Amino acid sequence: MNDKYCLWIVIIIQLLAFQGAFAQKGSTITGVVKDPAGEPIIGASVVVQGLSAGTFTDLNGGFSLNALPDAILKITYIGYKTETVRVNNRSSISVIMTEDAKGLDEVVVVGYGTQKKVNLTGSIASVSGADLTKRPVMNTTSALQGLASGVTITSTSGQPGKEGSTIMIRGIGTLNNNNPLILVDGIVGSMDGVSPSDIESISILKDAASSSVYGSRAANGVILITTKRAGEGKIKIGVNSNVGFQTVTTQPHFLGSIDYMELYDLANSNDTRNVTTGAAGGVIYGEDYIANYKAKMALDPYNYPNTDWQAITYKKQAIQQLYNLTFSGGSDKMKALGSINYTNQEGVFPDTYLKRYSARINTDYKFSNTLSAGIDFSGRHTAVSEPGSGTSAAISSVRRTASIYPWVTPTGNPAYVQIGANSWALSQEKLAGYNRNVYDEGVVNLKIAYTPVKELRFDLSYSPRINYSNNKVFSNIITYYDVDDNPIANAQTRAIKQTYNYTFNDDLKFLVNFEKNIHGHDVHLLGGFQQNTYYGEYLYGRREGSDFSYDEIASFPVTNQSTDGNGSEMALQSFFGRLNCAYANKYLFEADVRYDGSSRFAEGHRWGMFPSFSAGWRINEEPFLKNIDWISNTKLRASWGRLGNQEVGSYYPSSLNISLSQPVVFNGTVSDGYGAVNYAFKDISWETTTMSNIGIDLGFFNNKLAVAFEYYRRTTRGILMNLDIPSYMGYGNSPLQNAGVIQNKGWELNVDYDNHIGNLNYHISANLSDVRNKIVDMKGITNDYSDIYTSRAGYSYGTIWGLQTDGLFPSNSEAKAYTVTQFGNLQGGDIKYVDQKTVDTNGDGKPDAGDGIINSQDYVAIGNTIPRYTYSFNISAEYKKFDIQLFFQGVGKCDGYLQGDLAWAFNNGANVQQWQKDGMWTEGQINSKYTRMFISSANNIKTSTFWLQDASYLRMKNLQIGYTLPKKVLNRISIDNLRVYLSANNLFTFSKMIDGYDPEQSPTNAQTSVPLLRTFSFGFNLNF
Amino acid sequence: MKKYIYIILTALTILTNSCDLLDKNPLDSPNQATFWNNATEIDGGVVACYRFLIEYPNVQYTFPIVPDLMTDIGFPRQESDAKKIAQGQHDSNLSYIYQVWSFAYQGVGRCNLMLQTIESKSSVLTQDQYNQYKGECHFLRAFYYSRLISYFGDVPLVLKPIETVGDASKFVRESKEVVLDTILSDFTIAAALLKDKYTVATSIGRATKGAANAYKARIALYNEKWDAAIEASQVVISSGVYDLYPQYGNLFMASGLTDATIKKLS
To answer: Which of A67, A820, B48, B78 is the least crowded, having the fewest Cβ atoms under 10 Å away?
Structure first.
């Protein structure tokens, strides 16, 4: 925001130079312009209405100019409402300007252009760069979380550079790629490829009307990122810095050795219970052993370990640093903005980190009044590292290995672990080796704009983008030792593996814009052509078995080496056009069309037409609403359109490839044979999404309160699925066919409220959205339930299928008496399942009785892990020089499913957790949180509602307190603006999950991923 | 106005230059559209048609041994789908039945595709090559259909590549009689085109005139087409290429295993 102030001051000073001398009769009027907080506004323009004469306020907000006693002064300043003041014979005037948070002239970035927000007919969520940088985060994706309704952002891990973030706009639309199209200044890019401090604005195109201009790539929504550009005037310098530390939000509470052994004995005696008598079976450790262990544990931790694997493996905290330096400025002929960013984020998991260096130069050149150009460059180097062959093995060991195993020998060697693995050793780069990824990106954007006449504009741009990545995995032999330091086992082989990846993307674009008012109709026509090409290749090499630790391929023996490599190409060509028409500022109409061709599909099936239409009615411009003061905005919007999706995994889905390895032996000699093995249909084409959207925008009390509501329906047809074909076609595979249908219905509500109480300005914004997903057609494919998340027609994508639980058996006798066959011998504390009605006994065609056996027929849809009722609210307030922001984000309905080592004590040799001990079944109970203790039980580990978790949550995503130093003080040391702040991310969470589990991270990921992070940081924004 | 025209012309030039930009084929392997350009490639395509002589992937027994295992003639010690059939335990999910069906049709499919390719690319082939490849494909197609009707009776009769699911859905089971007629005529065509024997060492073992007639005789025999069986057998007998092995008993001895005459005849 303050950047803009400075920018305008400079522009205005420039303009002043052109003002020349003005001669006017009148008296000198002096005045002062202040903001509501009483701070002087520097550089506000003060103009006498009707004349070109004017001046600007000085450092104290003061001005002085010549004006007639009856003149009207017009005071303007960006970000504030324009004030008009009658002089009324006064010689001194004091003006207080009020902030204009929602200017009617607010412009929103749309596909291939910009549009006034009031004239929008589609559904676009817009986020300003200022909002993004308010919350210091390491990457742009997480900065966007909760800021826009209908946009669901989830991440699976707290590991730097491997957060596993996904962005989902308005639900899941296909069984294939659901990622939205991300364009950075019009060029395909990635969310995290842009530093948050380089971003001017982000537009999220949600409905078909706003995104159909991107046709075949827009089915999952479009995110337009616009980077900052320089303004005219003196060179400005911006410095942003943020330093903080991260800790885990929460993690499971594992029990120590004594609890482990006692409960293990209990579990074993349960498992070996005599079926007929019900008498408990034997124990493994026994009371004496445990008592002895307990006595010696403190004195001899090497022979009687009590290892807290989490405490030993994870770091207590990890440092993060974020720096940005921006220079910008220029003349009316040439402007330039250069920025450098440096991010360094250490992980709470040892030897994990992300380091990113990025630079951007955006330049604008004006050759004449009709011809201008721009050259932008952005480059990035990112290094992401983790120990060993990846963190997941080490983390699953943290979550599994029992505390009775030691982590280190008395001399400091890694200790041998019998069941599980020594996660400490696996997490140390010096022991386990490393897995390092380097990503480099370079993008150039060349643009030429030609405006022969005011109404007409031609744009031509060419943007090549090069990406290069290198993955190097060096794994080392880890030798484990017993307590006497004898090496007893080796893990891993010493090997090196490197993968080089190179991609080249080319983007060529030509646009024609025509804008004119014809008989009261504001007409805007856009026509364009775009062409994208892609080339990618990789090369892979691996060697193993070196006796030394040099981590280069050349230092390894050539035996046991392997290589691989491949390349691929893709091209897209598109023609598109748009017509915007506004009549009397009341009736708005927009039509878009895109004609797209993709090299992925065969000739005759590769071109697709994607049209859309939308209309808006600004009712408040009608006479009958115009006079109602408290309603300041009413707009109805409706849209319909069709979009495509060509992201189907393969670059050549319709190519019938010939295998060159189909040899046959004749006369004892191999003859080469060539033949197609897998069929591919030539006639496959785009997945098409049809989307309808209706919306209403309301503004009350001079837009202090703004409400927007939308409802949409989104149906994707022709989803490419691998379907069986008749064998007599001559192929044994299941080629891709356009077949599936998925429907999403949803709504979004946004409420904004702006007001002030005296010097306290506050802003409250809230959004709530929901989307219901349903797979309408999967062409009869019914997956079995081997996977917990199973997609079936008639149900939501990724529905959890399992057995319905009817509590636990309260006693052994009741378990034995139960007539329905479950799994194995049952005893008290085992899960009782509902025998669903699958048998029709009275012949009315409706099943009315169970079949007496629990099997796959009793599986029902029990939950879903796609978040529903996602909401957020943001409260920000400013009091004099202080500002505070509270940002909450939550999910109203979501299921999590616990399984494996995290759900079941002793599973696969796993550890035992506090909640399992506390919630353990005891005689007579039917509703305990955990079953009876067991080491293995076929009955209790079936997918069922018993292990289902309520993963809804409300989380304080960010709390920030800032202080802006007074301008008067700063100006003396030539600083325009300085704000210091303290910030906390993920401060606290309300959730019904089991203690130790983060509802935002699905339990499936919790097993093998770094927990999500809580961050405390300090930073400043400084502008010269 | 001139300027606009230049700009539009530039744009059009860019467009027209890149019309074939969207024709992309895999870089790592040929496909149906880019392959079959010379005799070597077509030869390899015909070779690959032989890959389904075994009935079922990764099994040690082939036709006609496998059918014996489904009866009381043979008994495999290990568990197998054939044994399940012998014991009457098979159901519609038995993978063996599907695999035999699918494998035979994969062979038929390749033959159909190569027959089409040989016709369309005949210009790159010599007359000898053309005759041999076409003969081999007809022979193999008849061979695969012989297996199909022996196992399944009435089967869909596919004689050209099927390209879409819509086309595929039009097929129904054709009566065994009709399929048999096609088999006999395929063998007849093959016999007319194929050589008596191959001279190039690496080709020995590929289908010959004698093989076509012999297999024709066999499928005719199985289906009580006595006249056709006699006629085809007579051609083989009178060709002068083949003899009966003089000491039948030796066939089951170690000496028979290494006898040069058997190798020569095979």
So the answer is: B78
